[in-house]
């Protein structure tokens, strides 16, 4: 059958295996549980075990598996014409420290469920349909965005391989090699070509409260925010006695940081009042435990700055304001501000044709959906940035994300997987 979206009737709808889904999530929980939440570091033992789990299940269903030089996993149900561009889906299975069991993993499990259901039903698509389980999507471990999907397209610079992981200081190169990758092939090994990919669809839990608030199980993503970040900014002041040092003689790192944060917060409010869409977060703000105390003027403040928007021009404007405010507080508070390296990710627009198809399919399924933006970054942004027609589906999830309390209902998940299956089917059969 043609992959044209003018026809929304594809192969017969196969049964999605709820028991298999529960089994995989239980196994992932066992692999990643740290006593409170899930911790599966990028290129760590937990992520390796999760990939091995997917390989084992895929092979049980007769699916093809392979890994690229960076140890990204590809699971494929071969099509009748393997020369046609492939339909792809996927997500990641690493987590932030003490995160939840569904962020990323839900999308990887969803793709595997679809391929297993097709294989069990004896269905063969016209073109290859491939699940990619990416490595290292959570940039909390290495300060690089979308490592797995970028390596898959050959977008990672060889110098990036020397980046140390935050918890152990060991380089990405060494971790990649220990996980079965071949970092020496960076820049040499074959990589994904956008022209060989028909489309990419990623399912993911929503990481905010919109679907819960709207009482809708599934969202269709319109775009993914980009970011500008300073992950390791430091304000250096001068430690001094809290009672013996008048204000005019102080070099107070905390007061400088507070002034800088409040000024940027005011800029954020002004941007929102003008109709702009962005977020601003200071996820780290701490003094030095070894030196700070209640009787001393603080001489050092560490902070992280995270700005996100779908408007790239606004991101650059905010970055300029960050630099300006840093210079202002340096002069006003007699401190030195070291913003450290800036990291960035580019906003991505989801394919309008795929969005329209997803909405039409949801109507046929009598599935309530809403259109919404993604404030968080995802591997789908890499595919879209390479010119691949890309879509994202969100599944309702209580209690946010990046915490142990992620709470995705299995009924909601299977509704999302059902829509994913229909959308992939339209493109693949």
TrEMBL record:
Q: Which domain of life is it from?
A: Bacteria
In the record's cofactor note, how is the cofactor described as bound?
Answer: Binds 2 Zn(2+) ions per subunit.
Kindly give the InterPro entries that the UniProt entry links to this protein.
Amidase_Cbmase (IPR010158), Bact_exopeptidase_dim_dom (IPR036264), Peptidase_M20 (IPR002933)
Co-factor requirement = Zn(2+)
Q: Name one GO molecular function term.
A: hydrolase activity, acting on carbon-nitrogen (but not peptide) bonds, in linear amidines
Q: Where does Zn(2+) 1 bind?
A: 92, 103, 204
Residues binding allantoate: 229, 293, 308
- Chain residues that bind Zn(2+) 2: 103, 138, 402
Question: Does the keyword field hold Cell inner membrane?
Answer: no
Tell me one Pfam family matched here: Peptidase_M20
Q: Which keywords belong to this entry?
A: Hydrolase, Metal-binding, Zinc
What family is this protein classified in?
Belongs to the peptidase M20 family.
Q: What is this protein called?
A: Zn-dependent hydrolase
